[in-house]
């Protein structure tokens, strides 16, 4: 009995072979279609510079420090413009986190931007760190301090300050108790008394380093120059240095009608040439000497008596 022949498993199939799609095509066999590339407007850009401004600021720049922000400003004009437009959000957060104080607000206003202040501040801190010395205030902080001092000298020709809202007859709205320009004693009073007295008390003890002492004397010279420019002939400046003892480094003479104007160069050279006393820190003796010197600076003179009488009569 013959067995029927079974087709061999190795025999080639008679069904037609399926065509494999070529790269760049999709589909099956003859029905495959060619893939069309997306247009440029249809593709989502992955470039960092093409990120929307909101995403760039809130999710990228807002998490960076000052060094990285400075680096990005040098990458492209767009990144620089974005930082400038969002200065308060980006650099303001850095300033508030590191140097938050009422003085900083004034310093930022003088700098023109949070970024300008932060870079100036970091430069002063970096110079101190590299030299291992004391971190002195930056330029804008010094300007802010001087501006505050100047704001206290916005009155000229007056010594006393009356309560807010009061006004002496013939005086000024800021509370000046001096008689007005028409009073007979006004000329003598203005000539014999400065409009204010400023005393600088400088720590020269051993706890103060040479760099700190030099920075302090430089500030005194600069502050005094600012005050004299704003109130020429109307401010009396004294400088005391203390350690174990107290030493008077400078005291303006009492102004009078025949006195020659003070030489600003003499004051500055004297202050900058000061030598640190070294030693202990006797604060009690320093404050006592300050009180005596300030009281001495406001001793009544004939002009004061005449001015006070004229003001009382006018009131």
Order of helices and strands: EEHHHHHHHHEHEEHHH
Number of domain units: 2
**Structural class of the helices, strands and pairings?**
mainly alpha
CATH superfamily of the largest domain, called what? von Willebrand factor, type A domain
The Rg value, from CA coordinates, equals 39 Å
How many helix segments? 12
Order of strands, widest sheet: 3-4-5
Question: How far apart lie the N and C ends?
Answer: 151 Å
CATH architecture of the largest domain: 3-Layer(aba) Sandwich
User: What name does the CATH topology of the largest domain carry?
Assistant: Rossmann fold
As a percent range, the share of helical residues equals 40-55%
The largest sheet is: 3 strands, mixed
- CATH first level of the largest domain: Alpha Beta
**Apparent shape:** elongated
What is the typical, i.e. mean, pLDDT? 73
Strand content bin: 5-15%
Uncertain parts: 155-192, 255-260, 300-315
Overall number of strands? 5
Description:
This is VWFA domain-containing protein. It holds the Pfam family VWA. Residues 1-16 have a biased composition (Polar residues). Residues 1-24 are annotated as: Disordered. Strands 3-4-5 form a three-stranded mixed beta sheet, sandwiched between helices. A two-stranded antiparallel ribbon has the order 1-2. Residues 155-192, 255-260 and 300-315 have low confidence and may be disordered. Strand 3, helix 9 (210-230) and strand 4 (235-242) form a beta-alpha-beta unit. By secondary structure, it is mostly helical. The chain has helices at residues 53-60, 66-73, 77-85, 87-99, 102-111, 114-131, 139-151, 186-192, 210-230, 264-272, 283-297, 302-314, and strands at residues 25-26, 33-34, 196-203, 235-242, 246-251. The longest helix has 21 residues, at 210-230. The radius of gyration is 39 Å and the shape is elongated. The chain folds into two domains: 50-140; 143-314, von Willebrand factor, type A domain (Rossmann fold), CATH 3.40.50.410. It contains twelve helices and five strands.
């Amino acid at each position: 009995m013959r067995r029927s022949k079974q087709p061999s498993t190795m025999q080639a199939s008679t069904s037609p072979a399926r065509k494999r799609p070529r790269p760049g095509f999709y589909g099956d066999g003859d029905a495959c279609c060619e893939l069309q590339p997306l247009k440029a407007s249809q593709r989502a850009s992955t470039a960092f510079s093409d990120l929307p401004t909101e995403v760039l600021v809130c999710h990228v720049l807002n998490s960076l420090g000052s060094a990285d922000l400075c680096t990005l400003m040098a990458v492209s004009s767009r990144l620089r413009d974005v930082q400038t437009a969002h200065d308060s959000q980006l650099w303001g957060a850095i300033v508030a986190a590191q140097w938050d104080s009422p003085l900083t607000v004034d310093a930022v206003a003088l700098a023109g931007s949070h970024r300008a202040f932060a870079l100036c501040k970091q430069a002063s801190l970096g110079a101190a760190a590299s030299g291992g010395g004391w971190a002195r205030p930056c330029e804008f902080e010094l300007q802010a301090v001087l501006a505050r001092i100047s704001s206290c000298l916005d009155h000229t020709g007056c010594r006393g300050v009356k309560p807010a809202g009061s006004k002496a007859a013939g005086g000024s709205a800021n509370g000046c108790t001096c008689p007005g320009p028409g009073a007979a004693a006004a000329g003598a009073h203005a000539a014999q008394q400065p409009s204010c007295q400023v005393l600088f008390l400088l720590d020269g003890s051993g706890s103060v380093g040479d760099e700190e002492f030099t920075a302090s004397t430089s500030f005194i010279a600069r502050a005094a120059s600012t005050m004299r420019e704003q109130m020429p002939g109307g401010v009396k400046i004294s400088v005391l240095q203390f350690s174990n003892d107290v030493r008077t480094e400078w005291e303006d003479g009492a102004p009078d009608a025949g006195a020659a104007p003070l030489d600003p160069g003499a004051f500055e050279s004297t202050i900058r040439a000061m030598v640190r006393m070294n030693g202990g820190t006797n604060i009690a003796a320093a404050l006592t000497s300050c009180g005596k010197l300030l009281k001495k600076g406001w001793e009544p003179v004939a002009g004061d008596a005449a001015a006070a009488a004229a003001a009382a009569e006018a009131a």
